[in-house]
User: What shape does this take?
Amino acid sequence: MICLGIESTAHTFGAGIVSKKGKIFSDVRDMYLTQEGGMIPNEVAEHHKEVKEEVIRKVIEQSKVKKIDLIAYSRGPGIGPCLHVGLNKAKELAEDLGVPLIGVNHAISHLTSGLLYTKAKNPVMLYLSGANTQIIALEGGKYRIFGETEDIGLGNALDKLARGLGLGFPGGPKIEQLAKKGKWIELPYSVKGMDVTFSGIITRVLDLYKKGEKKENICYSVQETCFSMITEVTERALAHLNKKEVLLIGGVAANKRLTRMIEKMCEGRKAKSYAVPLKYAGDNGVQIAWQGLLESGRVEKKADVRPYERIDEITVDFL
Ligand code: AMP
Ligand code: MG
Assistant: This one.
């Protein structure tokens, strides 16, 4: 069975073609970019409308597959107008090809595709993207969130810091480089039970910056502090759930200092740590196609979008 998946939740309009055995035939993406400023929903949706035909044409052409058996699309969570562009294109394709159509949850597809790309079987998942900071594990038939940020995601916190320091976007890689030359300064350490907060830390260091503190010291200390907080909560989740694997997912997982901290913590617990390959860390159609294949036994009653769907609303009976 071969599935074409369409991703359109946020900045990226992407499509991927994958087989049930996990072979990736093609992966085409077009990302909405700005010189300055963030994402304006209708502008992003316009972008997706402009590029969708080309992305779909390329993904089919590059795949060289003779037959597609299923169409999957991202039903949410995401930006409403963007989700509709994906849904409409998916409907049209399914009708043209005369094949079933299935809507899947975008966040779940990040997790399950993480299992496809790595050898992790039943890990504690650390989902660290721009907007998300969640510690997740499969328990009792659902992906449950054991810890999360109470304010902004770790990636967004790093991006906000970078903006304040005049480093540009994305901030994470630039902060990682500067941190190598920095020295320790004491910062607030903000873990509350299994949850974390980052806003206060960023406000504090931007204030220190105004008072003359060096960028390098700020970057080093923010990394050490925020990554320690994440590592502490992840270790507690491992112990509590009695699991032996950690899987890092999302753009922040590109950070070498963070992966090293998680690895060290895992060594101490005789656990293993994995990370999604960089190539697949960002939003793409492959993850949607793979999730579609996992759920291919299900018949979609009504194809729709669900901009606010959380992963713990979904029964995981497809793994
Ligand atoms: P995503 O939302 O999963 O596409 O991830 C994007 C986020 O990852 C942005 O907030 C980036 O600043 C962050 N990021 C990318 N590379 C790194 C890095 N080397 N260290 C820390 N954060 C990073
Ligand atoms: Mg995503």
